[in-house]
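Design request, tokens follow.
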């Protein structure tokens, strides 16, 4: 029987969230962010700099495209989507250090982080239920 501490420590070893991914990238932590959604979803918007690799392609593409030593973060659409878990399972089977970004792209956008699409990189309004609007500092 594992205790609660061990459970939550293990959970945090395998999951992350949008705010932690954004902070790590801002701090310069080398992460390979992989969007495991469909082509249609990718076209609608994605985390800037993410690699698009549908979870069904990971076993064949990842060894050629992503260094084995990379820290990999996968995401799908939302908490209602399990493609992120499917993608993480594929990366884990290949021996990658992988974590799933819980909340997926939905919460990345809802928290006001940059979103990339065919029109470039932009920010969507912060959903007040998921994020705190940034305070602008006066110079």
């Amino acid at each position: 029987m594992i205790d609660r501490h061990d459970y939550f420590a293990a959970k945090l070893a395998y999951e992350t969230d949008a705010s932690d991914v954004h902070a790590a990238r801002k701090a310069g932590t080398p992460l390979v962010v992989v969007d495991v959604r469909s082509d249609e979803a990718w076209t609608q918007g994605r985390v800037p700099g993410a690699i698009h690799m549908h979870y069904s392609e990971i076993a064949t593409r990842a060894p050629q495209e992503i260094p084995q030593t990379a820290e990999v973060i996968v995401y799908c659409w939302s908490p209602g989507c399990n493609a992120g878990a499917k993608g993480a399972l594929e990366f884990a089977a290949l021996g990658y250090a992988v974590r799933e970004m819980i909340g997926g792209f939905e919460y990345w956008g809802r928290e006001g982080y940059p979103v990339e699409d065919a029109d470039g990189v932009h920010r969507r309004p912060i959903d007040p239920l998921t994020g705190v609007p940034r305070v602008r500092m006066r110079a």
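Comment from the thread starter after seeing the answer: thanks! The longest helix spans residues 4-14.
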